[in-house]
Design a protein that fits this description.
Number of helices: 17
Distance between the termini: 44 Å
Largest sheet: 6 strands, antiparallel
CATH superfamily of the largest domain: MetI-like
Helix content: 55-70%
Order of helices and strands: HHEEHEHEEEEHHEEEHEEHHHHHHHHHH
Shape: flat
Number of domains: 3
Mean pLDDT: 88
Low-confidence stretches: none
CATH architecture of the largest domain: Orthogonal Bundle
Number of strands: 12
CATH class of the largest domain: Mainly Alpha
Length: 551
């Protein structure tokens, strides 16, 4: 046994066990996140039953059973429920009741002993609305302009047809508002800025004023025509309604203009459910959020996260590499360089929120404010670069991750054999040529390692972004079709902040919980894709210059 310990085998097995435990823990977290997040998009059956209230009243109940748990019967009795029997524990279920505009609540816990028989009637519909959440109930009729056009067995086919029509009109209205009217608003704003710029220079003559006014009249005329077109579409989309009967027998009329989707989960087969799941998963990835980010998609957050990380990588890579090259290849090794290296290493341990405060004070207020004074005076007092935006967020994270890139690059440069440098110099190459054509290519895998670590950290940071550019809901993407196309001054959405906002700031916590898991899983996937791309490039570089390492 003593020889076994002296051989070091126990420590090898202990290390292997710790690594295996860490891998299992990570796999367990990812599995839980995937199960909770991806399961949200599967169509769930809608149950119908009765419930006995505290005062003895029996009410109807329609909804999705989301969770089950056991609680002490004593707690239920203390809450006023009359629980039959003498069991110490009783089961209760969390039901998504929907119909928030009728009942005032979306989720509620119900003790199972007080529930009636659970039934799953095929005619119960789930209506996903753009406002007020889901509606659950029995379909009664479809109306057009207040007149019943379908009831009974003909109601469901007619409803599907009219919902598809309403969604098509809704997309037309959305396209007109975002693209066409957005283009006109952009043109009007550019005219205002041009006029204000000439006014500040004292060059705004009456002729130019008249020319600007003529252009405004043209744009306003186009805006009026678009408004008429949108008004016509709104009238068309607002003519159709559905009538549904809720759990208490009350009939509710819902405008199809507010309906995003409608389906009968209890009648779906496996193929229908798989198609529904794929469609909802696609909507989650490509649509914009709605209902305080608790419904809809998260495409703006995905786009903002990827764009910010790419901008950060473009900024931090040359800065980190140049700093490492200077300290390793050109600077005289002495106390000053040692102090700089210690400072760089210590910077890696500074809390990220401190970088956010620095970014807000230096980049946003000082640098951005001066840029506005010099280059965008016509826009003042409204700031252009003097407010948080994706440029300042990327620069802040570049500084945050700079120590990682510097240290990794220095280590890569140190591993390049001295004989390689001496051989290059002996063949007549200058020091710069040796560095650029020989040393840097051999150290490139280490540089990519630093970039991988920087991307992994930057993509998951949230605290500094809250000060330098991230928002709950961005009206436009930083990239669009208007010059200069990439608008670095705009605020943006981020997956990490979206998780925080939905998980902790949502007015409807139960509805938001599955989206927290789904968004967290997507953030992990985005980071994984970015890292795998960098790892693939690093491996290619390592294979390309493997022969030089043995020189």
């Amino acid at each position: 046994m003593r020889d076994w310990f002296k051989s070091g085998s126990p420590w090898i097995w202990l290390t292997a066990g710790a690594v295996a435990a860490a891998v299992l823990a990570v796999a367990g977290v990812l599995a839980l996140t995937a199960l909770r997040g991806l399961g949200h998009f599967w169509p769930k059956p809608v149950a119908e039953t009765t419930f006995t209230e505290r005062d003895g009243r029996v009410i109807g109940l329609i909804g999705e059973i989301r969770e089950r748990e056991e609680v002490a019967t004593r707690r239920l009795r203390e809450a006023g429920f009359v629980i039959p029997g003498n069991d110490a524990f009783a089961e209760r279920v969390l039901v998504k009741m929907g119909n928030r505009d009728v009942s005032g609540v979306d989720f509620r816990w119900f003790p199972v002993p007080l529930l009636g028989e659970l039934k799953y009637p095929g005619d119960v519909v789930t209506v996903e609305r753009r406002e007020w959440g889901n509606f659950y109930g029995h379909l009664v009729a479809v109306k057009e302009g207040g007149t019943v056009v379908a009831d009974g067995a003909a109601t469901w086919p007619e409803l599907e047809k009219r919902v598809a029509r309403a969604n098509g009109l809704f997309q037309q209205i959305l396209a007109l508002e975002k693209k066409d009217i957005g283009k006109i608003n952009y043109g009007l704003e550019q005219l205002r800025l041009q006029a204000r710029g000439l006014e500040l220079k004292g060059q705004l003559t009456e002729e130019r004023k008249a020319a600007f006014e003529k252009q405004r009249e043209v744009l306003n005329g186009q805006f009026g025509k678009l408004q008429e077109r949108i008004g016509t579409l709104r009238t068309e989309i607002g003519r159709d309604t559905l009538v549904g009967r809720v759990m208490d027998g009350q009939e509710v009329e819902i405008k199809l203009a507010l309906v995003a989707d409608v389906y009968r989960a209890n009648e779906m087969g496996l193929a229908d459910k798989m198609g529904h799941y794929a469609r909802k998963l696609g909507e989650f990835m490509w649509d914009e959020p709605r209902e305080a980010n608790t419904e809809g998609g998260i495409f703006p957050a995905i786009f903002g996260t990827v764009l910010m990380v790419l901008l950060m990588a473009v900024m931090v890579t040359p800065l980190g590499i140049m700093a490492a090259i200077y300290m390793r290849e050109y600077a005289k090794q002495g106390p000053l360089i040692r102090v700089i290296r210690i400072s760089v290493n210590n910077l890696a341990g500074v809390p990220s929120i401190v970088y956010g405060v620095f970014g807000l004070g230096f980049f946003v207020y000082f640098l951005g404010g001066n840029i506005d004074q010099l280059f965008f005076p016509e826009a003042l007092p409204s700031p252009t670069f003097g407010s948080p935006g994706i440029l300042w967020a990327s620069l802040t994270l570049a500084i945050l991750t700079l120590p990682v890139v510097i240290v990794s690059t220095e280590e890569g440069l140190a591993r390049v054999p001295r004989s390689v440098r001496e051989g290059s110099l002996a063949l007549g190459a200058t020091k710069a040529e040796t560095l650029w054509k020989t040393v840097l290519p051999m150290a490139s895998p280490a540089m990519m390692t630093g970039l991988i670590l920087a991307v992994a950290r930057a993509a998951g940071e949230v605290a500094p972004l809250m000060l330098v550019g991230v928002v709950k809901l961005a009206p436009t993407l930083p990239l669009d079709g208007y010059f200069p196309f990439l608008h670095l001054e705009r605020k943006f959405m981020h997956l990490g902040f979206h998780i925080y906002d939905v998980g902790f700031q949502s007015p409807n916590v139960e509805a938001a919980r599955p989206l927290v898991y789904a968004t967290a899983l997507l953030l992990v996937i985005v980071i994984l894709v970015l890292n795998l791309s960098a790892i693939h490039l690093r491996n290619n570089l390592r294979e390309k210059f493997r022969g030089l390492e043995n020189v």
